[in-house]
Structure formats: structure tokens, C-alpha cells
Amino acid sequence: MLTITTLKQILAEPTRIVITTHYKPDGDALGSSLAMLLWLKARGHDVKLIVPSDYPSFLMWMPHQEEAIIYTENKDLADGFIQQADLIFCLDFNGLARTQDMQAVLRNSEATKIMIDHHLEPEGFDQFRHWNPESAATAYLVYDFIVNLLDDRASITPEIATCLYTGVMTDTGSFRFQSTTAEIHLVIADLISLGAKNSEIHELVYNSSSENRLKFLGFCLLNRLVVLPEYKTAYFAITKEDLARFNIITGDTEGLVNYALSISGIRLAALIIDRTYQIKLSLRSVGTFPANEICANYFNGGGHRNAAGGHDDLPLEQVVDKFRAVLPLYKEQLLGN
Asked: What integer pLDDT is reported at residue 337 of this predicted model?
């Protein structure tokens, strides 16, 4: 593994750098990546941001997001940049499989890989790692990397502060999750002092829903919400026909699972979606209940204790049955205080 001293020496001279993140980037993934893009470009590096797929429309206002190369739309161009890169910054993921179609070209790249992430159990593809599974967001770790490891707070512009604020805000549920520590609030205060306009960012992210998305939300609450009080669990099971009916696009299902978790007394919530090529699961929990354990043990996934995801190749109905069959195994924990 590289030391921070060696990495500083590498970054002291202009070099070819690629930044990437996980498939279907969320606010933390894109915010971290854009902040790193702006910081590295300001230091004179030749930098390309390559994202594995498209991302939600409510993030398309972010500074310089138009510079992102979407891998599924520009594979040959992206592959060329990856093959030529000297450094690859891997942000908000700890296993190359999270990049889906980019996995092979990244694994075969001879570039030095730098991982900045907060997910459990890193794969080990990296040569430098700034990692903390207790961190609220990768954007916080990017801030820590720039400000504390590289002692370069002075280089954080209002645009960089905006990107980092967005990342932390979205990954902490607007600062309401347990991961929102006093340190997070101090960093957020610093980002505001550096130019992040908190109220404007919140407005752009959370008050930009389409009419279709709101109608879809109402439909799901009325027709797809299932509550299992005997397990303090609630879930949505969304069919591919549901998605087509409301013309659902990337980002439109974001936050839906939290409505199930918001029901009084519920400790575990799930969003199970038929994405045609695969069934996707998003689990959220409260307290000490290990949502990540269910995803890891039964649904080819993982994540954080209170926020995890997975997938399955079975039909939607069978995945729902499988999820429900798991609940009795956790009944004592679900019903505990």
C-alpha cells in the first residue's frame, strides 16, 4: 500500500487521472466525484470523470456534472481514458463489481488505484485507501482527505463545497441518520462557510420531483405497501409494469423505502423492484438491526447496518416470498427494544 507521503509526491506533478464511482451514482457518489474532479483539475492534472451509468435528474444541477462521461453511452472513449490513466480514484465503492460493466477494464488497468469509501469489507483492489466504515458519507472522507491528509483546505472553492455538502446531506438523510455525528455538523458548518448554500442545495435535490414521480409515490403507498406488524417490518414490491406505467426514470424510486420505515413501530423496511434484468432490493432499518446481514446472507449484497442493498435472479414473487421467509429467523431482533 502507498503511504500518504508517497501519494503526495505523485500528486505534486501533473498526471493522467480517472475518477469513477459505483453504478447508478447517488448524491454521495456524484458529489464526492465532482468535488475530487474540481480539486484535481485545479492542481493541474489531466482528469476525466467516468460514471458507470446515468444518474438521477435531481443531481443534474451540480457543478460540472456535464463533464461526466457515462460509460454505458461512451464505452470506447471511457476505456481509452482508463487504459491511459496513471491514477484511478475509486469513490464510494469498495468492490469493482459495483461498477458493473466497467469492472473488467478497471481490474486490468495498471494504474495506481486510490479508494476513498465507507462501506464494509473492502475487496482489496487498491494501492492507497482512505476508508472508514463508521463515516457518514464518502463526501466527508473526501473532505478529510483534502483538508487533513493533504492540508489543503484553502483550495476548497464554493463549487467543491457545494458538491461535498450535497454528498453528506443525501447520505445522512438530511442529517437525520445515526451517522450524523457532532463532527459531521462541524464539517457541514465549514462547508457552508466555504460557500455551500445549504437551503438552495436542499431545494434543488428534494423539491424537484416530476408529476410522474409523485403519482408513482401515491400509487405505491396505496397499492404496493405491505405491513407485517408481527415482524415490525414493511415493504414495497414494485413490478416492471408499475415502472413502465409511470415512466419511471433513474432516481424516481429514491427514498421510497423510507416511507415504509417511517411507520410507527417499524424496524425494518424493504423496497423490492423488478428491474427486468434483475430484482433489486434496498433495505433500511433502525437501531441495531442488521439490514446488511440479510442482504449479505440471502441477497448477494451488503452495505451498512441500517442501509443495505442486494439483488436476486428469481422472479419478483419468489424474491418477496424469500424475503418474508427470512423474517422469522430475525423475529427476536425485530421485536426487541
From this structure: 59
- Residue 336: pLDDT band (50, 70, 90) is confident
Q: Answer yes or no: is pLDDT of 312 > 70.
A: yes
DSSP β-bridge partners for residue 271 = 236, 282
Distance CA 303, CA 187 (A): 24
Of 292, 326, 295, 319, the C-alpha closest to 307 is 292
Q: Cell numbers for 198, please give them.
A: 445549504
Q: Domain of 23?
A: 4-206
CA distance 184 to 177: 11
CA separation, residue 186 to residues 140, 143, 165, 181 (Å)? 11, 12, 12, 9
Contacts with 160 (C-beta within 8 Å, 6 or more apart), sequence order: 35, 38, 39, 194
User: Is the domain of 12 the same as that of 140?
Assistant: yes
Q: Which amino acid is at 73?
A: E
Q: How far apart are CA 293 and CA 308, in angstroms?
A: 9
**Residue 197 sits in the same domain as residue 224:** no
Over the stretch 51-107, which tens digit does the pLDDT of each residue have? Answer: 999 999 999 999 999 999 999 999 999 999 999 999 999 999 999 999 999 999 999
Q: Are 311 and 192 part of one and the same domain?
A: no
Q: Are residues 285 and 152 in the same domain?
A: no
Name which of 145, 156, 48 is nearest 102 in CA terms.
48
219 to each of 12, 216, 245, 256, how far by Cα in Å?
A: 54, 5, 11, 11
Q: Write the pLDDT tens digit of every residue in 256-285.
A: 999 999 999 999 999 999 999 899 999 999
User: Which amino acid is it at 2?
Assistant: L
